[in-house]
Specification:
Elements lengths: L2 E2 L7 E3 L12 E5 L2 E6 L7 E5 L1 E7 L11 E6 L5 E5 L4 E5 L5 E5 L1 E2 L5 E2 L2 E6 L5 E5 L4 E5 L5 E4 L10 E10 L2 E12 L2 E11 L5 E12 L5 E3 L8 E3 L5 E3 L7 E5 L5 E7 L8 H6 L5 E4 L2 E4 L1 E3 L7 E6 L5 E5 H5 L7 E6 L5 E7 L9 E5 L2 E6 L1 H8 L18 E6 L9
Parallel strand pairs: 4-25, 5-32, 11-12, 21-28
Antiparallel strand pairs: 1-6, 2-5, 3-4, 6-35, 7-8, 8-9, 9-10, 13-14, 14-15, 15-16, 17-18, 18-19, 19-20, 22-23, 23-24, 24-25, 26-27, 29-30, 30-31, 31-32, 33-34, 34-35
Length: 416
């Protein structure tokens, strides 16, 4: 049974640095109709520490009757029901707004309402639960009771190759869909990567991002920066935010119609990795050929990505998790967010005091809820068969995954 935390646990909000509503000292320059913002290294309104209240938790110990595989994504419907996507068990664990388990929906397969190794989930504008399958790419729709509701339409690969879905989610009344098409060419494996804004019938309304290239099949290699899954998020108002450069602290902001309207940058020095961290962040990839399985040469970056995660809040703010914000925190701080107002001004840094370690655990922010997915990375490695380089004699069995739900209130109003 999951444990419900009583409302007596109030949010503790303390200031670590005086937040004096200082003047923003960055630069804002229009270029070809697009506003480019250069933010200083420090926020205008100082730093804040937020200790959100724990509302409920589930899984992770012998007393709990709920067993998770690998939780990767979370969606919340208009009634407050919470859908935890389990990519290992190929289902969604449904909880009510108070953290009580309701049911499990979805199952593995290729039929109506079925999917394999999903990568994401979201609620459509019509209130359906959408589950994203990466390969082959499709978006499966379910009713709230788990019955099949069809698929979200989308064009097939133009050259008849294989299509992968690497991103999908709701943006206001539209849907964002990230696709990567692969096909064999004379010089190797061709890829065509796109991020599209679509209506709910699958018709493309705008192309937000596009990149094409070819990889040499005879000397296949993979660079972490090239295989980097670009952080993105979308707001309730329909705006889409994309960080498309591994090294640059830069966020492109697209209007609800799909037009680039702002580019947000911040003075930032990437965090350097240790040798151990570089090894841990190497892409693990194998390629099947006519001669069997071939190990792909991989290269890891000596620094973390400038932007790790982004979350668009309902109050109009954008919360950005940088490499330093994820991995350079003092003991007792889970993560530290950079907060930007609706204009793109860097106004605050918010340190989150919560149980967890970002090096091991996953994180999701949905509405006013922060979810900590405990032991996410160990569970993911175990699902993929473990690390072949690990010393089997020293392996320690990982703790089962659990989820903790916190109430996360806004700390600053969005400036209009």
């Amino acid at each position: 049974m999951n444990r419900l935390i009583t409302p007596a646990l109030l949010i503790a909000l303390t200031q670590t640095t005086p937040a004096l509503a200082g003047n923003w000292t960055g630069k804002e320059v229009p270029r070809d109709g697009v506003i480019h913002l250069t933010n200083p290294a420090k926020p205008s309104d100082g730093a804040t520490t937020l200790s959100p209240s724990l509302e409920w938790r589930a899984g992770g110990d012998e007393e709990d009757d709920i067993l998770f595989g690998v939780l990767r994504d979370i969606a919340i419907d208009d009634k407050g029901n919470i859908y935890l996507l389990d990519v290992q068990l190929n289902q969604l664990h449904v909880f009510d707004r108070d953290g009580n388990f309701v049911r499990a929906i979805g199952r593995e397969g290729e039929g109506p309402g079925e999917f394999r190794r999903p990568s994401g989930a979201f609620i459509t504008p019509e209130g359906k639960i959408a589950v994203v399958q990466s390969m082959p790419g499709k978006v499966v729709l379910l009713n709230t009771d788990g019955t099949p509701a069809g698929d979200l339409g989308g064009a097939a690969s133009a050259d008849g190759g294989m299509r992968m879905y690497w991103a999908a989610g709701r943006a206001g009344n539209n849907v964002v869909l990230g696709t990567n098409d692969f096909s064999r060419g004379d010089n190797g494996l061709k890829f065509h990567n796109k991020l599209r804004l679509m209506d709910t019938k699958g018709t493309e309304k705008a192309l937000l991002y596009e990149k094409s290239g070819t990889r040499d099949m005879a000397n296949m290699g993979m660079d972490e920066k090239q295989s980097f899954r670009m952080p993105w998020t979308s707001g309730r108002d329909g705006r889409v935010y994309l960080a498309d450069d591994f090294d640059a602290y830069r966020v492109n902001v697209y209007s609800p119609a799909g037009a680039l309207e702002r580019v947000i940058e911040r003075e930032y020095t990437p965090r350097k990795r240790s040798a151990k961290e570089m090894e841990e962040n190497k892409p693990r990839a194998m390629m099947r050929t006519d001669r069997g399985t071939q190990q792909i040469n991989v290269t890891a970056s000596p620094t973390d990505p400038a932007v790790l995660r982004m979350f668009a809040r309902d109050d109009g703010t954008l919360w950005v998790l940088s490499g330093h914000g994820g991995f350079s925190n003092p003991k007792g701080t889970f993560v530290t967010f950079d907060v930007f107002d609706a204009k793109g001004h860097f106004t605050q840094q918010v340190a989150i005091k919560a149980e967890g370690d970002f090096a091991r655990d996953g994180i999701q922010v949905v509405g006013d809820h922060l979810f900590v997915l405990r032991e996410f990375r160990a569970a993911q490695v175990a699902m993929m068969g473990g690390d072949e380089k690990a010393d089997k004699k020293e392996e320690v069995e990982a703790e089962p995954m659990s989820v903790a739900c916190y109430r996360l209130t806004p700390t600053t109003a969005a400036k209009k």
